[in-house]
Amino acid sequence: MFTRHFELTVQPFLEWTPVERLQKDERFVQGVARLEYLAHAGGIAVVTGHTGVGKSSLIKLFLASLSPTRYLPIYLHLTNVTDVGFLKLVVRSMGEVPKRGKENLYLQILEKAQASELTTILVVDEGHLTEPEALVDLRLLISSALGDRPPLKLILTGQDSLWDQLRRSAHADFVQRISVRYHLPSLTPEQTVEYIDFQMRTAGGSEKIFEPEAKVLIHDYAGGIPRQINSMATACLINAASKKVQKIDDALANETMAEFRLP
Fold it and tell me: Does the model's pTM come out above 0.85?
């Protein structure tokens, strides 16, 4: 395996990266700051970005920053279900057995959140796949005209098409309650270089394994999308190891990128 060839202690460019190995670049610093505001004073946050740009990593960093003595995070990503199915998922995630009837599911969620001394933060990933009826249910769950604080807070993440869904007139009340809006951009060329270097250092290797021209090519091919950078950089490492070379230059990077062209 290429880790042995390059004398790496762990594999870099993993799809599912432990939170301690996530690079806290400026995009994530800005995103976490906004989500921390939500935890303190907001009600709904909407985080959007292209697929593979790092939305889940941002959420992972934010959740890791929360005090377990103050907050109870609930994470859902199986969102492409019916509105009733969605409410059942929330109830199960709160440690309860779902009851029959939509009204009972509402009450279960609200009573559980209100009875807790912790602030419940519901994170709904892949929000662009959420059924319109489920979005209405979410808005009703966090609306509390009589309380001094919302029963729970909501973070909705998804691709840019999520906004197309939220702009529909049926979701006007939902949009008006959004207190945090953040679009996670792709990496700039400079950030891509820093990302590749960080991944290699964290894995116990040298940032000089990828030559500067190769890093630029990877950025251009990947469009600054971290998931694509991970795949392409890993393919370069595999290719270099198979050729028994210690450097990844622009020629090897170009050769490797051919693997990613659709037939």
Answer: yes
